[in-house]
Amino acid sequence: MEPASRTPGVLGLQVLLCSSLLLNALLVAHHILSALPAPSELLGAASNGGCSLSWSLQAARDAESVAATGCSGHGRVFLDGIVGEDGRPGCECNTCFQGPDCSVRTPDCTVDADRPHARPLNQSPDDGTIHCQTMEPASRTPGVLGHHVLLCSSLLLNALLVAHHFLSALPAPSELLGAASNGGGSLSWSLQAARDAESVAATGCSGHGRVFLDGIVGEDGRPGCECNTCFQGADCSVRTADCTVDADSGDPMFLEPYWMRHAEASAVVFSGWHRMSYRATDGRFQSVELERIIKQLHRAVGNAVADDKHIVFGTGSAQLISALVYALSPDSNSGSSAGVVATAPYYPAYKTSTVLFDSRENHWEGSTATWANASGNSTMNEDIIEFVTSPNNPDAQLRRPVVGGASAIVDHAYYWPHFTHIPAPDDEDVMIFTASKLSGHASSRFGWALIRDEKVAQRVNDYIQQNTMGASRDTQLRMLGVIKAIVANLHGKDDIFAFGQDVMTAKWRKLNAVVSRSRRISLQKIPPQYCTYLGKIREPSPAYAWVKCEREEDGDCSDMLLKAKIITRPGDWCGASSRYTRISLLKSQDDFDLLLQRVTELVDAEEDTTAGSNSI
Length: 616
Fold this sequence. Notes:
single chain; alpha/beta; 7-stranded mixed beta sheet; 13% strand
């Protein structure tokens, strides 16, 4: 048949119908494609839409849950926010807003245009409204009426598909905020990050190395294995021949296996807009919730009285050492200078940091031996700051201040049950702790000081703020998760202190067994002691072996061990005789196995030499 004459109205209706049908096809195709799992761009691995996630799943849910809470557009919920009575972190409101959901504008509020906040941009997206012009209906033939029906059906289908798309994109509430989850399928923006984290963690590197998300990327676009000392190859399977072992560093890698077994409890996922401001809760530089959990940890372990003290965070204990020397020194206008001392053998950083900053308010005076018996000496009018490490680094002895009238800084980096017995909670005026020796997370660079005097605490806080504006907020979030996991497992089968003590005790026993055969070298004596935390007498498990070279010709003990392919920390660095040297037991099992091999070779060679001399 010849086509009927098409009026402009009918032609427009057909164009609109074709456009709507095309849109139907595009939306259906988008729905099907979006349901397919995205390949891991990092390692090219396949995934099944989130259900393959294991230990990172809960952390990803929690991150999306807090990020999805709008707080009326005038605040945020953060993973490390203050937890309310319901066990959930609440909204932290922007300036001049208040209420549980930040919906109430504070009347007559003074705006703060002084603090350097990095605020997210508030964009006003297009509302997506479609404005249509109405037309007078044309005369409707049966064909035109059919077009109308089909068009209406197509538009309705479009509406349903668009609604489904937006509803399915909404994140499911997390168990963190009391809602059920559906096994990972509800994840959106955190899914790829969680996949990537699990993918690199699952790469074994033959058990002698690790792949890291920030590792060097190879030609295939993937980060490769980073091998332990004395191992090499693409998968770290090749042992380096005749390798020198590094027993100098205090790198606490012995705890890595613990966290691999407790991956879910310590995993942290957070949004790209987490804590972008310089400041955290209530305008402070440190997490209130992290302060609370740290004090809870001290109460549970029984190693320090913390509840009546101010707590100040630092970028590792190294920053706190300098901050406390500053805080306890005389004011710069006084014209006097405090002497900084420590009992030998001491941690070398006390000396090096004091000398490095070369302040007018303080100076390095050396060993406490000069000052401990200086009563009546006119020079005792000088202010003295005494560093006390307990247990001591390097010889593991529990120590107390020895200089009367001095301001003591008690470094309790190793005062945890995996390194020493805990006789009682310590209650000194100033005490330092560090995450590196508590949990092994040395790279996070996090430490804290417990300080009794408010003025001293304020001076320490002033130093930290001027120096780094507080510890990294990202680090604080990670340490909150780590310490929560530690507290949750205390006295249980997954107690980190029981795990750590078992590992360190085994190392000490094996090293002692080899060295006991030698007349050339010896170790410090540490008797078993009762530990209040464990409720029993425990075997020694020191972080370091303090080695003495017994032969007259071995005046430089560190150099002698270096010739035996063992790198150690010389005793004169610690203010002691060069006849002593420090061997670290904190590193990985690979490092310790090689160390034990080198010490065994040294002792065996000594026995062979002695046997040869006797035969002559």
